[in-house]
């Protein structure tokens, strides 16, 4: 890819989503894991002196730390709201402290009102996700009514309601904020962002004219380049690694 050859000699900052981008989706999100060859590639990236690597996910930070147990990676949970740098120092979105209590209250509300085994209530530090893709239409309507009640009582959160799940995120927080934070902290690095769904569109928008963005899936949005799956993600990472060794061809 011609755009990559132009990065030769530059410091590169790879910022990537987790689920569906560097780790394959699973029916149960608790069973997702990194493939062995992906772990090896990520490890190699962290050992390059002119590279930085961050994983930013909608998962909770503690959950992400269990999923990506590789030293030297910046790990950001809750859509970037809480993150640990490559040395393990914890930092947060400036308003994160306002949401720990309300997120716990929301979790308690859903736990009291939803007892269906097909619904997974994923509690994060300052956000939540409801997974219900296996629900029938009638039960799904019941869940939507409960979600709408929670939405009315919690205007400080954005509720992104979908057919398979609902993301509940602090208003004003998103991966775009995290990417801007990283650009500010590491101004000498050229940013390369990878994502695969609607929560990553903000990150793609932030990098327009400032870096490279890749979308894993069909129909990449404007401002991004398409990658068809994890195999192509691995190929991209290997090409970026080749840059540090000066062996990437113009092809």
TrEMBL record:
Its cofactor is Mg(2+). InterPro entries: HAD-like_sf, HAD_sf, OTSB-like, Trehalose_PPase. It is an enzyme of class 3 (hydrolase). It catalyses: alpha,alpha-trehalose 6-phosphate + H2O = alpha,alpha-trehalose + phosphate. Pathway: Glycan biosynthesis; trehalose biosynthesis. Its EC number is 3.1.3.12. GO terms for biological process: trehalose biosynthetic process. One of its GO terms (molecular function) is trehalose-phosphatase activity. Pfam families: Trehalose_PPase. Keywords: Hydrolase, Magnesium, Metal-binding. Removes the phosphate from trehalose 6-phosphate to produce free trehalose. Belongs to the trehalose phosphatase family. PANTHER family: TREHALOSE 6-PHOSPHATE PHOSPHATASE. This is Trehalose 6-phosphate phosphatase. It comes from Carboxydothermus pertinax.
